[in-house]
From TrEMBL:
CC cofactor: FAD
Disulfide bonds: 41-46
UniProt: FAD binding residues: 299
Organism: Lactobacillus helveticus CIRM-BIA 953
Protein's name in the database: Glutathione reductase
This enzyme's EC code(s): 1.8.1.7
Cofactor binding: number and manner: Binds 1 FAD per subunit.
């Protein structure tokens, strides 16, 4: 039996930031990874997605500027794009593992299974620690219906060598909306089937629907209020049948119906760790599970905050600091922005625009009139751009939502204003951003 002070199960963003936070301590720490070191973000998520999205955004922007001075709009060469993506990310897991080792963390390949609250088994060998951190993230959900065996998931899309002619996405969450944007821009005919009445329910309706309208103009079809009930295979084509009787043909079907906590290989039945109804790990305000000395961080935990890299990083940094310094302070989350890398992008932060519209405590200011002047977004011909701001009774900016080609960078400029509760006067007396900048759009400019 090998003994450590702390064992990390999973080696994604949560584990990485935990390791950074513990750097320089005398604790003996082991990171165990069953698949690829680095976890979802650099291997199956944000980073390869943003690589593909960068090309797509440039192409779609150039198409919008045709006849405004761009002579020939560009198009996507999917095969070269994918070949480049694969070459760029090939060495990522090895580089990530080296990152752990450089931080003084021992690494181990294999799936960890609990034997009891303080012992895990990996490849037949046992490892023990007083403190164990579960950072196993989430994985794509697999729906179960006749023909569901023909579906692919987001990991497959990010590795797709040849572009399908027709693609059907099941679900219209962030994963689906981003990947539909990619495949459609590259030339696939994309349809999206969604149970609910609109996509990305966690985001402001007005801004999501603004993006949906743009996606529709580019030929993406949406089928709301219905789920997929059956897929039939006819030679190399599939017939996708929905609960509303819609029939769609496709040569590629993506199950993008959501992500579930990665707990199935953990042997949690051998511990006191408890799961929520959704199957995520329940933790208290100290990120400790029901089993004393067993903690959890990142996407795997049940929480109100969005399951994103910044959330995982914040939790892991907090936990690393608590565990190596024997602290006992509850976690207090900061303002965390959320976004979808669609075209146009959708982003939001702070108090929800939808909730604020029905609440007397807040005032929602829709800044759309600013954009009709063809000024703020003119260089990108972003005519449909929409930005809404939420102010509280003290006239402090407390929330924002935007749909535009620049929504993510814009809101990254707004997040400090909200997080620091800064007033217009404080901002203008402290710094002036390069013009034109988001503070102009928010009328925060002095
Ligand atoms: C397509 C896609 C795009 C995304 N884009 C963004 C984005 O743009 N911005 C953003 O902020 N977030 C994005 N996310 C979310 C982001 O990837 C996650 O929030 C983040 O990776 C969570 O980190 P984590 O460490 O909690 O889990 P993960 O990164 O999932 O890492 C968990 C690791 O644990 C391993 N593991 C599981 N079980 C075991 C076991 N029993 N033993 C050993 N190892 C195990 C897994 O193999 C995995 O490597 C995206 C996600 C997806 C799927
Ligand atoms: N840009 C980013 O930051 C980014 C990108 C991708 C993923 N993520 C993270 O991953 C999480 C998961 O995203 P997701 O899109 O996988 O999940 P999701 O839960 O947000 O969306 C899944 C969608 O599928 C629908 N659905 C479920 N079953 C269905 C069925 N049978 N038929 C039709 N529709 C069905 C749901 O109603 C929902 O709208 C996000 O919430 C986010 O935390 C973030």
């Amino acid at each position: 039996m090998k003994k450590f002070d702390i064992i990390l199960i999973g080696a994604g963003p949560a584990a990485i930031n935990f390791s950074i936070a513990t750097q320089g301590s005398d604790k003996k720490i082991l990171a165990i990874e069953g698949d690829k070191f680095g976890g979802t973000c650099p291997n199956y998520g944000c980073e390869p997605k943003i690589f593909l999205e960068g090309a797509v955004r440039n192409v779609l922007s150039s198409q919008l500027l045709q006849n405004r001075g761009i002579a020939q709009a560009s198009t996507i060469d999917w095969n070269t794009l994918m070949k480049t993506k694969k070459a760029t990310w090939k060495n990522m897991p090895a580089a990530q593992e080296m990152g752990f080792e450089n931080l003084g963390i021992d690494t181990l390949h294999g799936y960890a299974k609990f034997v009891d609250n303080h012992t895990v088994e990996v490849n037949g060998e046992q490892y023990q620690a007083d403190k164990i951190v579960i950072a196993t993230g989430q994985k794509p959900r697999k729906l179960n219906f006749p023909g569901s065996e023909y579906t692919h998931n987001s990991n497959d899309v990010l590795d797709l060598d040849n572009l399908p002619k027709k693609t059907v996405f099941i679900g219209a969450g962030i994963v689906s909306m981003e990947m539909a944007t990619l495949l459609a821009a590259a030339g696939s005919k994309v349809s999206i089937v969604e149970f609910l009445s609109r996509p990305m329910m966690a985001f402001s309706e007005k801004h999501v629907m603004n993006t949906v309208e743009d996606m529709k103009k580019r030929g993406i079809d949406f089928y709301f209020n219905q789920g997929v009930s059956e897929i039939k295979k006819n030679d190399d084509q599939y017939e996708v049948i929905t609960s509303a009787g819609t029939k769609l043909t496709a040569d590629y079907v993506v199950d993008a119906s959501g992500r579930i906590a990665n707990v199935d290989k953990l042997g949690l039945e051998n511990t006191d760790v408890q799961l929520s109804k959704r199957g995520s790990i329940i933790v208290d305000d100290y990120l400790e599970t029901n089993a004393k000395g067993v903690y959890a961080a990142g996407d795997v935990i049940e929480k109100k905050q969005p399951a994103l890299v910044p959330t995982a990083h914040f939790e892991a940094t907090y936990l690393g600091d608590q565990l190596v310094n024997d602290k006992h302070d509850p976690i207090h989350y900061p303002i965390i922005g959320a976004s979808a890398f669609t075209f146009p992008q959708v982003a939001q932060v702070g108090v929800s625009v939808d909730e604020a519209r029905d609440n007397d405590e807040y005032t929602v200011v829709d800044m759309d009139h600013m954009f009709n002047t063809d000024m703020e977004y003119a260089g990108k011909n972003d005519q449909s751009a929409k930005l809404s701001l939420v102010y509280n009774k003290q006239n402090q900016l407390v929330g924002a939502a935007e749909s535009s080609q620049n929504a993510i960078d814009d809101l990254n400029g707004i997040i400090p204003l909200i997080g620091l509760k800064i007033t217009k006067e404080q901002l203008n007396n402290s710094y002036q951003l390069i013009f034109p900048a988001v503070n102009f759009k928010t009328e925060f400019m002095g």
